[in-house]
Amino acid sequence: MDDELKSVIRGIALLNASEHDGKTRNDSIISKVIGIKPELRSRIKDVIPLILQAVDDVNKLSVESQKEELARKYAELLIVKPKQERIGLPPLEGAEQGNVITRFPPEPNGYPHIGHAKASIIDEEYAKMYGGKLILRFDDTNPEKERLEYYAAIKVGLDWLGVKYDLVKNTSDDMEIIYKKAKELIDLGDAYVCTCNKDTISKNRREMLPCKCRAGNLDQNNTRWNKMFDKFKPGEAIVRFRGDMSSENTVMRDPTLLRIIDEPHPIHRDKYRVWPNYDFAVAIEDSIDGITHAFRTKEYELRTELYYALLDKLNMRKPKMLEFSRLEFEGMPVSKRVLKPLVEEGKVSGFDDPRLPTLEGLRRRGIVPEAIRKFVLSLGFTKSDTMPPFETLESINRTIIDPKSVRLFIVFNPVKLTVTNNNLTEIEISNHPQNDMGKRRVEIDGSFYIPDNDAKTLKTGDEIRLLELYNIRITKMSPEIEGEITDTSYKPNIPKIQWISRKNPVNMEVLMSDVLFVNDQFNENSLQIKQAITEQYYLELNVGAEIQFVRFGYCRKDSANQAIYTHK
Ligand code: ATP
Ligand code: MG
C-alpha cells in the first residue's frame, strides 16, 4: 500500500515539477494527492512526510531526469485530457447585475419533461448568475387542453429538480389587462375582428391576400369585438393583428391574437370565453412581468418578429427574446402529441412510466436531479438541434449515484450450488467498497443460488470465488453443482461470482427500459420484466434507494419487490 502510494506521489511531484521549470512544492502536491485519493484525507498526517520526501527528491533531480522518469514510469499522467466542456452558461446579452428577470412559462397541458428541465434550469441559472429573479408563469389561456392536475404536476417536477422560483402566477389572472390591450390595438387600427371562415383565412394567408374584414372600420371592429363576448360562436370571429399580408414571414400575415373558446377554464370556469393565443399572451405578459430576458425554443424563432411588433404598437417595454434548441432524446419523444396517445392507449403505464423522458419517468428510473442539471448545463445555450445521446445523461448520473449506491447481490435464473464443507453460519458484507454505508449480515449454510449464466460455464475441477466469501473448487456438476472450499485468498484469474443464500432468498423483479420508438415505430419490446432473487437486505431499503447490483448494474428500488434498472 505504502509503496503504491509513494509511487503515486512521486508521479504527481514529477508532473508538477515538469510544469514548473523543474521545481515542485509541497502544497501543490498535497491538494493533488487528496484530489486523486480522497480517502487519504483522514490519514493526511501519515501522508505528509511521504510528500515532503518526494518533493525533496524530485527537486534534486535535473530537469532532464525528471522528464525521462516521468515519460518512462508515468506516461498516463502525460496524456492531455480533452478540454472539459465548459460547465455553465455564457454571459447574457445586455444583462445587468441585480436587474435580470427570467420566466419559465409552461402551459399546464401535460406533465413536465426533460425539455422543460432544460428551459427551467437555464431560466433559473441566469436569474442566479445575475442576482435576479425567476417567475414561474402558467401560460393557461387555452382551456380546451389545460387541467388543474398539470399545474400541480409542473410544480412537483420543478421542486424535484430543485428549480426555485421567486414568484408564481397565471396568465389567466391578467385577462382584464389582456382585453384592455386588445381593445387598444383595435382602437389604434392595428387589429381587427375577422369573421371569415378558417379555409378562407388559410387560403388568403397562402396567397398573401387581405380579406374584406381587414378593411372594416373602427365601428365595425368595436361592435364585433363586443359580440365576441356573447353573440358569436367559437370559430365565428377572431381578433387578428394587422400585420403584413405580403410579408415573407408567414407569421406576420395578420396572425390571430384572440379567439373564442367555450370550454370551462380549470381555474376561472366560465368567467371568460375570449382567450388570447400564445403570441399575444406571451408578449403582454413578458412585458408587464418585467421580464428582461425571455428564452424559448428555436421553432418559435419566426414568431419573434410578431412579439416585437405587438409591443411596438402598444408602446410597451420590450424584453430581450433569445432562442435555444429543443432537447430530446432519440426514440424518446417529449411532445404531448406523441406522449398523450401512448398513455391513453395504455402503451405505457402512465406519465411516470420509466421509458418516458418525463421528470416522473426519469425519477423512477433512478436519474437524479443533480445529474439533469449538470447534463443541461453541459449542453450549454446551444441552438444546434443535435440530439444528445441518453448515455451522456446516464454517465453523469452514474458518477453521482455511485458513491451512494448500496452494493447488493442479485441472481437471475438461479441454479443451486452446495458447498459441502462450509462451516460458516453468518458473514458480514460491507454495503459499499469505499464509503461507510454500513454492513449487512447474511445468514449462510452452504447452500446457494448462483446465476445460470455463470453455472453454464463451469465444469468439475474449476475454481471460482464466491464474492465476499471464499474460493471453492467444483467437485460435481450433476445432478446439482457441488463444491469444496479451497481457501480465502484473493486470486486474480478465477471467476468471481455473486450468490444468494438459499436460506432466505427474496423474490423480486427488475424492469428494464429500452427506447420507445425505433425508426418511428413503437418498440413492442421497450419494457422487459426480469424475475430475480436478491438478498434479505433489499427488504430493509427504502423505496427510492439506489442500488448497484454487483455484476449487473444500478437500479432504483421502486416498490417492495420491484426495482427499475437505471444503467450499467
Ligand atoms: P409541447 O410541444 O410539448 O406542447 P411546448 O413548447 O408547447 O411543448 P410549454 O409547456 O409551452 O411546451 O413549454 C414551456 C417552456 O419550455 C417553453 O419556454 C418552451 O420553449 C420550453 N420547452 C418545451 N419543450 C422543450 C424542449 N423539448 N426543449 C427545450 N425547451 C422546451
Ligand atoms: Mg405549448
UniProtKB/TrEMBL annotation:
A motif ('HIGH' region) lies at residues 106-116. Residues 100-398 form the Glutamyl/glutaminyl-tRNA synthetase class Ib catalytic domain. It catalyses: tRNA(Glu) + L-glutamate + ATP = L-glutamyl-tRNA(Glu) + AMP + diphosphate. Gene3D superfamilies: 2.40.240.100, HUPs, Ribosomal Protein L25, Chain P. Keywords: Aminoacyl-tRNA synthetase, ATP-binding, Cytoplasm, Ligase, Nucleotide-binding, Protein biosynthesis. One of its GO terms (cellular component) is cytosol. Its main location: cytoplasm. It is an enzyme of class 6 (ligase). It comes from the Archaea. GO terms for molecular function: ATP binding; glutamate-tRNA ligase activity. PROSITE patterns: AA_TRNA_LIGASE_I (PS00178). Its EC number is 6.1.1.17. SUPFAM superfamilies: Nucleotidylyl transferase (SSF52374), Ribosomal protein L25-like (SSF50715). Residues 407-488 form the Glutamyl/glutaminyl-tRNA synthetase class Ib anti-codon binding domain. Belongs to the class-I aminoacyl-tRNA synthetase family. Glutamate--tRNA ligase type 2 subfamily. Catalyzes the attachment of glutamate to tRNA(Glu) in a two-step reaction: glutamate is first activated by ATP to form Glu-AMP and then transferred to the acceptor end of tRNA(Glu). This is Glutamate--tRNA ligase. The gene is gltX.
